[in-house]
Amino acid sequence: MLYLGTDHQGFRTKERLKHWLESKQIPYKDMGSFSFHKADDYPDFASFVARAVQQSPQRHRGILLCGSGVGVSIVANKFRNIRAALCATPAIAKASRSDDNSNVLALPASFLSWPALQRIVSVWLTAPFSGFSRHKRRIAKIHRIERL
């Protein structure tokens, strides 16, 4: 399952993303915000998505938005087995999947055009993990760090 979450800064973009995902027949679950509230806080929605992905981090994925993408990526990466990647280009999105097997995509809603965001999401959703031993080794090291 693909989980979506955002604060007020990414709300309109998330609503647009939902329609785009539906047009591509990509199932998703919206974890909020469910309406525009200028006083909402990104840690809440990033936590909802991270917890959902955490239930099956190899199968589930998440997309988070906030103004810069930084806040939601920081929050998501606090959760064990979550590898959130802040991506501002399709090339970074592809590398985050092929090299790091990212399972959460963090997007800077205030800094991306709609066409750029679509390309990033499309690449991230379709790019596979390479499975190269060096990347597996690095991810294993991340897992060890998470246990500290």
And the CATH topology? Ribose 5-phosphate Isomerase B, Chain: A
Shape, please?
A: globular
Strand content: 5-15%
Total individual domains: 1
Task: Give, in spatial order, the strands making up the sheet with the most strands.
Answer: 2-1-3-5-4
Written description of the protein model:
The N and C termini lie far apart (29 Å). This protein has 148 residues and is an alpha/beta fold. Strand 1, helix 1 (11-23) and strand 2 form a beta-alpha-beta unit. Helix 2 (42-54) crosses helix 3 (70-76). The longest helix has 14 residues, at 133-146. It is globular and about 40 Å long. The chain has one domain: Ribose 5-phosphate Isomerase B, Chain: A. The model has no long low-confidence stretch (mean pLDDT 98). A five-stranded parallel β-sheet has the order 2-1-3-5-4, sandwiched between helices. The chain contains six helices and five strands. It has helices spanning 11-23, 42-54, 70-76, 90-98, 114-126, 133-146, and strands spanning 2-6, 28-30, 61-66, 84-86, 104-108.
Q: What is the topological layout?
A:
Blueprint: E1 2-6, H1 11-23, E2 28-30, H2 42-54, E3 61-66, H3 70-76, E4 84-86, H4 90-98, E5 104-108, H5 114-126, H6 133-146
Parallel strand pairs: 1-2, 1-3, 3-5, 4-5
Pfam family, one: LacAB_rpiB
GO molecular function, one term: ribose-5-phosphate isomerase activity
Protein name: Ribose-5-phosphate isomerase
